[in-house]
Design a protein that fits this description.
Radius of gyration: 23 Å
Number of strands: 20
CATH superfamily of the domain at 6-43 and 62-82 and 242-323 and 473-531: FAD/NAD(P)-binding domain
Helix content: 25-40%
Shape: globular
Largest sheet: 7 strands, mixed
Structural class: alpha/beta
Number of helices: 18
Amino acid sequence: MTAPDYDVAIIGGGHNGLTAAAYLAAAKLRVIVLEKNSVVGGAAITEEFAPGFRNSVASYTVSLLNPKVIRDLELKRFGLDIIERPAGNFWPLDDTTGVLMPYDFTKRIAAIAALSRKDADAYPRYDAALERAAKVLRDLVPRTPPNAGGGLLSLLKGGVIGRRLLGLSIDDQRQLLDLFTASAADFLGRWFVNETVKAMFAFDGIVGAYASPDMPGTAYVLLHHCFGEVNGKPGVWGHAHGGMGAITRAMAASAQSRGVVIRTDAGVRRVLIENGRAIGVELTSGETINARAVAANIGPKLLFRDLIDAADVSDDVRRPFIAIKTGSGTFRMNVALSELPNFTCRPGTREQPHHAAGIIIGPTLAYLEQAYIDARTTGWSTQPIVEMLIPSTLDASLAPPGKHVASLFVQHVAPKLPGERSWGNPAERETFADVVIDTVTRYAPNFRASVLHRQVLSPLDLEQRFGLIDGDIFHGQLNLGQLFSARPVLGHADYRMPIAGLYLCGSGAHPGGGVTGVPGMNAAREMIRDLKPMRRLV
């Protein structure tokens, strides 16, 4: 019998695949990463989208990247430099009012007090409760979920994890249960009364969720976006110098320094399965690569829909993976700007702190709700929720002198348009892109005229370019039925798929989406446990 070429073949060179590869190689396993595009990085890449203008293409900001991954992969040694944003988020509300939420706790309370004194008084208790919940989540993130039971119940039965949760006070247990099951609107309504204040916190609950803030489960999405840190500072958001591609370039360099082979323009056609075990992959070129194990850094739905032959797995096994709920309801744009936006509520095109913050158009809870209703009804909202970052305010390498680049991350659009309409029609994409530009221009009247070039990615573009089914940035929605022991599906939360030798190392596995590196780290740990006791390649 011919010895396999590698110990592990990884499908997809996104950040989790590169992370897994680096950990596996550190354990002296032979690893190859296969990326269908011409550069590694998956959705976390930087490219020039107009002459002289560069930006992160899909993913766009840093906070959730796990500090252990940064340390273990020595990403700073390989060039990663994360710049802290000087403030959190900025909400332009109307022609006269804009709220800048600073990181400083006292100043943040003052900003809330300008809208509601009662909510400012409630904020310290809310912040403390959320931080306690986030601390629990940070503890759970690097652990392999128990592979039995379901949802939150299985966590309570899960040894160390169960003891961690049962060690909480009864109030904190209730709080955590609420965060896993309640809507963002209901959860926030227990703390705050002002509709704008609630919208400011509810925004994190609908990002990438294709949900209204009234839908159960959005409170957890809110929490999911709260457990990050930058340079050891919890709750801070940042920018990778050179764009998000700087993260994956550093990861690739780290992996290669440990002996990982990385191949681009190497799309995988199918997983090779023999006698019920994954033994390698076949590329779209027809080439086969043999390996003792295969790790998929693509969505589990894509894996079982397109890369597993029907003859190799029963319908009963395939069906739960195909049924995974996908769709982020997101639309992504990059624009080249001749000048900074001049907000009516904070005039001026000279750089100010709010220009370097996350600029969010979503002034009330009702606005967030209506955007979702419109998307479900007509395909998109005429008043979409827009998060705009202008990373060139922190990183001059992204644009020519005096000019800027902006990322626009937009909610909500239907993953598939109603009726005979399709995102495959460029007119649909460009029409909605105009709606997005007009939405920002209502708050910053110079914005439309300042746009020199734009790069536009619909949900279909995100699927075709990055393999994100229905444009789902999380590889599967973050709802209670698709978390922890139920992620990606019940019975396979431990990164091992129902085919021997096949693993899942991407965002479709625990703990889910965002540029964290944690699914790759956790999956590598399980693969090492399985593969190291066996005879390694000579």
